[in-house]
Amino acid sequence: MNPLQEHALQVTRREFLGRAGTGLGLAALASLLGGSTATAAPVSGRLPGLPHVAPKAKRIIYLFQNGAPTHVDLFDYKPKLQELHGQAVPESYIGGKRFSTMTGKADGKLLLAPVEPFRQRGQSGAWVSDFLPHTAQVVDDLCFVKGLHTDAVNHAPGISLLLSGAQIPGRPTLGAWLTYGLGSDSENLPAFVVMTSVSKGTSCGQIFYDFYWGSGFLPSRYQGVKFRGGGEPVLYLGDPAGISRATRRAMLDDLAELNQLKFREHGDPEIATRIAQYEMAFRMQTSVPELADISGEPKSVLDLYGPAVKEQGSFAYNCLMARRLVERGVRCVQVMHAGWDQHNSLTTELYNQCRDTDQPSAGLVADLKQRGLLDDTLVVWGGEFGRTPFIQGNLDDRKRWGRDHHPYAFTSWLAGGGVKAGFTHGETDDLGMNVVRDPVHVHDFQATLLHLLGIDHERLTYRFQGRDFRLTDIHGHVVKDLLA
Fold first, then answer.
1. How deeply is 157 buried, as exposed, middle or buried, from its count of CB atoms within 10 A (0-12, 13-18, 19+)?
2. pLDDT score at 7
């Protein structure tokens, strides 16, 4: 028998389908490589038809506060909570509600007044606690969303729901969806970068799971690239001793040719991802050291971010790096800070959290504004849910005051990127327990963020296991009142 005919007869169904699908894949790879492995660059284009609507923002910085900041101590001022301090929470506020196992039933729990005083700030008159004096100075640039609510009562499911649309890990996160849909404006840095930090000495730090910035069932090229908090931001970028850049270039060219052969055989998109990421790493050998060198930043700018700005791995340093990243075309920067889980440390560690995050957050807004970047950069600040208006712990032991998880109402703020400045949307009841006006579910929040970046959340989908998935699952409405 003819060897070619024999080979054709032995090809399995899986191999045939894999090879049959390589036509479009090779076309995409050709675009990716620009016709030459020596000039290969990450995908900078976007999906056909995007943006769906005129974008207000080109990029997003998400200042994610892991552990759930207490809305009733920071932004949601409730005089009645002060008035009823130490009294049992009325049944009408908690009937039928589910709290974490640490609270169980909330019957008989005592209401806890805000730890620090609130004051009205700026021309907008927004209420902000004395915990956040620097945020108080930029309130007229902020858009407060006080009617947020979620379905999750524990941290990891809550963060996963807010960032990926599902409590169970495995779906693409916001940054992955944005990168998949909009591509990147930088050929030398990843489109989606993540940085993490935690306050020193905290006893309530949260674990940073990789699925918080994962690509789920999207090709892995869309997952977030985590920059380290110490030493080199990205490991193994440097060439070994004795290896010149020309030698490295030649090695990558040969490796790309081998990977292309394998891609032609199997059509696996992860092979194309591997080629692209090798090329990205090559470019990052020069772009990352330049990015991390903040010696050219003027003192006036460093002062905006606070005294910890030169300490690599601090929240302040990461906020400055976020600005430098978006300046260089990065689409999504996710800055995550852990330690807000104050079950028994409101009067101690809440001060540390605010000290470490208040000035850098406000400084980032001010820095972007003075550079003309705030108009088309969307900044988001917030956590996965709020904290209970009632106490967790003993009212007589002030050093151990705490609040439990609270999914029924919490606050986030937005800045720039097409949102109303000096504006407050939504309202909770007089104890900060439930949303009573303009509720915003986390899926509505996601739909709104995508809309601001020019994406119709119902149209950005990806077929997986026979179903078209999207960030907002089968829910979500754009909150138009937030739009400038």
1. middle
2. 42
Integer Cα distance of 309 and 316 in angstroms: 5
β partners of residue 469 = 462
Tens digit of each residue's pLDDT (9 = 90 or more) over 294-325: 999 999 999 999 999 999 999 999 999 999 99
Q: How many CA atoms lie within 13 A of 284 on its CB side?
A: 23
Overall residue count recorded for the chain in this entry: 484
CATH architecture of 58-231+312-482: 3-Layer(aba) Sandwich (3.40)
Q: Cite the beta strand spans of 175-326 per DSSP E.
A: 192-198, 225-227
| Per-residue tokens: 149 | 């609510």
Q: For residue 463, what pLDDT is reported?
A: 96
Pick the closest to residue 285 from 323, 248, 237 (CA basis). 237
| pTM recorded for the entire structure | 0.88
Strand pairing report for 118-121 and 126-129 = antiparallel
Work out the number of other CB atoms within 10 angstroms of the CB of residue 116.
16
**Model confidence at 31: pLDDT above 70:** no
Report angle CA 190, 484, 143 to the nearest 5 degrees.
75
339: left (phi over 0), alpha (psi -120 to 50) or beta: left
Under 8 Å between Cβ of 449 and 169? no
Phi, psi of 334 (to 5 degrees): -110, 110
CA distance 25 to 23: 5
Please provide the distance, in angstroms rounded to a whole number, between the alpha carbons at the two ends of the chain. 72
**Do 476 and 447 meet the contact criterion of CB atoms below 8 Å apart?**
yes
- Neighbour-count burial for 328-367, b at 16+ CB within 10 Å, e otherwise: ebbbbbbbbbbbbbbbbbbbbbbeebbebbbbbbbbbbbb
Dihedral, CA of residue 168, residue 204, residue 361 and residue 424, to nearest 10: 70
The DSSP code for 158 is H
What mean pLDDT is reported for the chain? 89
Sorting pLDDT into bands at 50, 70 and 90, what band is 202? confident
CB 356 within 8 A of CB 316: yes
Q: Please report, for the chain, how many H helices and E strands are present, in that order.
A: 15, 17
**Tokens, residue 75:** 């932004």
Backbone phi, then psi, for 281, in 5-degree steps? -60, -40
Mean pLDDT over 60-88 rounds to 98
The burial class, CB within 10 Å (0-12 / 13-18 / 19+), for 399 is: exposed
Provide CB contacts within 8 A for 197, sequence distance 6+: 229, 313, 314, 315, 317, 318, 335, 336, 337, 338, 356
Question: Residue 98 and residue 95: Cα distance in Å, rounded?
Answer: 9
User: Are the C-beta atoms of residues 445 and 479 closer than 8 Å to each other?
Assistant: yes
